[in-house]
Design a protein that fits this description.
single chain; 406 residues; alpha/beta; Rossmann fold; 2 domains; six-stranded parallel β-sheet; 19% strand
Length: 406
């Protein structure tokens, strides 16, 4: 029996759906669907809503905090007698550490550098407890999967003894769902309002305030997009790309956002929402920014298709699924160089890689993406062909089934 452990909500009907909860949940949903498609028996431990009317070996908890879920796992693994050949698939090191009471096969999947986030943003006691549990997990994991080479390097540097049991496998996406024809039937009509989107949790390590500051510059320096002369307060490079001058960027009028200009939609939920809403008001962007909350998979696809570009700035990442979904839909992305993004985001072809601390640079990339979105469409779609989950998820499942105790 393969047991999948998750503390973020996943809804299971005839298929699994994580909505826009985050990349690790979307990845786990893809693996569940791979197991379902191949009729491989599995159990669930954690925050699952099961509506598939199938017999399911499940131990459900709906944690309000990670600490409550850790307590639940410790109690579960102390009380419940699992079979010795059961395989347990964890997505957090501290969750795996709760299972060491008896010999089992344990697999740890690392989605980005969680330890980095803990070290940067938590108090001393939390850091100590987490790092203590992380070391236990690294010792007891029989197989460690990382979604990108940078994440693997961070953990191998810290724990050299895991080098022989770590594998790098990127995230995959459902290309049959997040895709569109490479050649649209007719050129799209120019839109008076350009739409920028962000999909993901409203929480660290995402640099959400940096995204808002850059978007504010776009609004302040914007002219109608259906005019041929370059917008004032902007300079252009030899290739036609927008370059903000150090003196010119500070002027301009704030666009009302109701008839022309740009709009920024943030899809997701998280603890930073109240602070972000206050920032939007302070920046005078109430008419230009919308928070949607968590969306369904269908709603996410519709949001992407109705957008012109997407942005993800983050302190660290693994292999972000939301970026791949956007590219698969033929839309360019603005990102910084974290995780595996530089493996498939090619500046000027399917997006832009920026310095998140330079708001002018980010704003210029947003405008360039808006103006070149249609021309980038085919390159965006083609860049995602190697990341079809029908190619990647079978590899993950095979690694899980073939895992042997160290």
């Amino acid at each position: 029996m393969i047991y999948l452990v998750s503390d973020t909500k996943i809804v299971l009907h005839t298929r699994a759906d994580a909505g826009s909860q985050g990349g690790s949940s979307a990845y786990l949903s893809g693996i569940i669907n791979q197991l379902l498609g191949n009729q491989i028996e599995f159990g669930l431990i954690g925050n699952f809503e099961i509506n598939d009317k199938l017999r399911r070996n499940a131990h459900l908890s709906h944690p309000s905090t990670n600490l409550s879920f850790l307590k639940y796992l410790i109690k579960l693994f102390l009380v419940k007698k699992f079979d010795q050949d059961d395989i347990f698939y964890f997505q957090r090191p501290d969750h795996l550490a709760c299972s060491i009471g008896s010999k089992k096969i344990r697999i740890l999947h690392l989605h980005g550098q969680q330890r980095t986030n803990i070290i940067r943003s938590r108090n001393l006691l939390t850091k100590f407890n987490y790092l203590f549990l992380e070391r236990i997990a690294m010792r007891h994991a029989d197989l460690i999967l990382a979604t990108d080479k940078r994440t693997a390097s961070v953990y191998v540097t810290q724990y050299p003894f895991i080098a022989k049991k770590i594998r790098v496998v990127p995230t995959g996406i459902d290309l049959s769902f997040f895709s569109s024809p490479t050649d649209p039937p007719s050129p799209p009509e120019p839109k008076p309002i350009k739409e920028l989107i962000y999909i993901g949790r409203l929480a660290p390590p995402k640099l959400l305030h940096e995204m808002l500051r850059a978007f504010q510059l776009v609004i302040k320096n914007q002219q109608p997009f259906n005019t041929h002369p370059p917008p004032r307060l902007q300079e252009r490079g030899s290739g036609g790309e927008v370059l903000f001058g150090t003196e010119r960027v500070s002027g301009g009028e704030v666009n009302s956002g109701t008839e022309r200009g740009s709009h920024f939609t943030l899809a997701g939920a998280g603890p930073l929402l109240p602070a972000l809403q206050r920032s939007v008001i302070e920046m005078g962007l109430e008419q230009n920014v919308t928070f949607t909350g968590i969306l369904s998979k269908d709603q996410i696809r519709d949001l992407i298709f109705n957008s012109d570009a997407a942005i993800l700035l983050s302190a660290h990442e693994g292999s972000p699924i939301s970026v791949k979904e956007v590219l698969a839909c033929g839309k360019p992305v603005i990102v910084n160089d974290v995780g595996d993004l530089s493996d498939y985001v090619i500046p000027g072809r399917n997006g832009y890689i920026v310095n998140p601390e330079n708001s002018r640079e980010v704003a210029a990339a947003i405008i360039n993406a808006f103006e070149n979105s249609t021309n980038m469409r085919k390159a965006c779609i083609n860049s995602m062909l190697p990341y079809d989950e029908s190619l990647i998820n079978p590899e993950i499942v095979k690694l899980i089934l073939d895992c042997k105790p160290v």
